[in-house]
Design goal:
Order of helices and strands: HHHHHHHH
CATH architecture of the largest domain: Up-down Bundle
Largest sheet: none
Number of domains: 2
CATH topology of the largest domain: Growth Hormone, Chain: A
Organism: Trifolium pratense
Keywords: Membrane, Sugar transport, Symport, Transmembrane, Transmembrane helix, Transport
CATH class of the largest domain: Mainly Alpha
GO cellular component, one term: membrane
Number of helices: 8
Strand content: under 5%
Helix content: over 70%
Distance between the termini: 57 Å
Protein name: Sugar transport protein 10-like
Membrane topology: Multi-pass membrane protein
């Protein structure tokens, strides 16, 4: 990506290293803050930051390369672009990156947790592979529009979290059915007997 945007070989390598370091550090931020601030807050903050960065990157590339793909960045503009790319990487690394593995393991009841995690891993790996295969091709065809394309999906993801994902911080797995039952949308899909059975099972544990 950096080479396509006009960065030299050394600059491309250094930019990749910088973004990689940011990724590692930001992931550690998530490790130490997820139980303090909760999953929803990190999801919403990370999604908002990712959306803003995608739009700004798209605008910067559109202003310099347009639809022809011909253009170049000055050093200052390249540094600014790298900053927003790193801001995007950081937002993903402390929100959607690790929480995409954590939250699915928390929201499934014990009875279906293995199947739920298996589906989560399969879908995650499948779409990671697909995006990696088509990203450069899409960039060549959509050019700056690709970043607005992904920004749209980030917006949808963030709205989904805001409206449909309950907070799972400090919620035991045994209590998840009760959490779903108390949610304004998902309550109609959770039978009452499932919640009562989970409650009875918890009471039966010595």
């Amino acid at each position: 990506l950096f080479k396509i945007l006009g960065f030299g070989d050394d600059a491309s390598l250094m930019s990749a290293v910088i973004s990689g370091v940011v990724n590692v550090v930001a992931t550690l931020v998530s490790v130490f803050t997820v139980d303090k601030f909760g999953r929803r807050l990190l999801f919403l903050e990370g999604g908002s930051q990712m959306f803003i960065c995608q739009v700004i990157i798209g605008i910067m590339i559109a202003s310099k390369f347009g639809v022809t793909g011909q253009g170049s960045f000055t050093k200052g503009e390249a540094d600014l672009l790298l900053f927003f790319i790193c801001a995007y990487v950081a937002a993903f690394a402390w929100s959607w990156g690790p929480l995409g593995w954590l939250v699915p393991s928390e929201i499934c009841a014990l009875e279906v947790r293995p199947a739920g995690q298996a589906i989560n891993v399969m879908v995650n790996m499948l779409f990671t592979f697909m995006i990696a295969q088509v990203f450069l091709t899409m960039l060549c065809h959509l050019k700056f529009g690709l970043f607005f394309f992904f920004a749209g999906f980030v917006a949808i993801m963030t709205i989904f979290i805001a409206c449909l994902l309950p907070e799972t911080k400090n919620v035991p797995i045994e209590e998840m059915n009760r959490v779903w039952k108390s949610h304004w949308f998902w309550a109609k899909y959770v039978p009452d007997h499932v919640v009562s059975e989970a409650y009875d099972s918890k009471k039966a544990v010595p």
